[in-house]
Each structure stands twice: as C-alpha cells, then as structure tokens.
Amino acid sequence: MNIKLVQIGNSKGVRIPKKILDRCQVEGSLDLSVENESIILRPVKKVSREGWDVAAKEMHGAGDDQLLIPDVFEDDTELDW
Q1: What's the structural domain count of the chain?
Q2: Cα(20)–Cα(26) distance, rounded to whole angstroms?
Q3: 3-state secondary structure 7-52
C-alpha cells in the first residue's frame, strides 16, 4: 500500500487507515523504531492491572483497604447450591 506524507508543522506524517488500526488493535499510541533503514510502528499494548500495586500500597497507607462487607457469614447458615 502506498501512502503519501502530509505536512504537519515542521514535520511530516502519515494517515493510517482505520481498517489497519483495527486489525493491529491500535488503541492509543505507537512505538516507533528504525530497523535496517525501515520505519517500524508497533502498537503499545497496555499491561493488565498496570499501576494496581502502587494504588494498593497508597490505599493501605491511607487505611482505605478495609473490607466493606464481612468476609464470612457470621451465622452458620448453610447455603443451598
């Protein structure tokens, strides 16, 4: 597929068709690298639960990590499954 460069201020850019973005699952940003005189664009994949460890430590430090409901039933009620 041939595409043309477009002027963007002092730089140049390309328009990537939506079908290609969808196929490559591009959501927010791309990683750009140069390999063997070729421009390589790769989608940046989000890491599942990224930052949860930091948030959990902050919650614990603020005392916000207490259970909202009891972890077990206080009466010995048997549940029918």
Answers
A1: 1
A2: 9
A3: EECCEEECCCCHHHHHHCCCCCCEEEEEECCEEEEEECCCCCCCCH
CATH code of 48's domain: 2.10.260.10
Q: Report the alpha-carbon angle 44-56-26, nearest 5.
A: 15
- Domain holding 32, by residue range, is 1-65
Please tell me whether residue 6 adopts helix, strand or coil conformation.
Answer: strand
Q: Tokens 């430090």 label which residue? A: 61
CA distance 11 to 5: 10
Give the pair of three-digit tokens for residue 33.
Answer: 């690298």
pTM over 0.90: no
Q: For residue range 43-54, what is the model confidence (pLDDT) as tens digits? A: 988 777 888 899
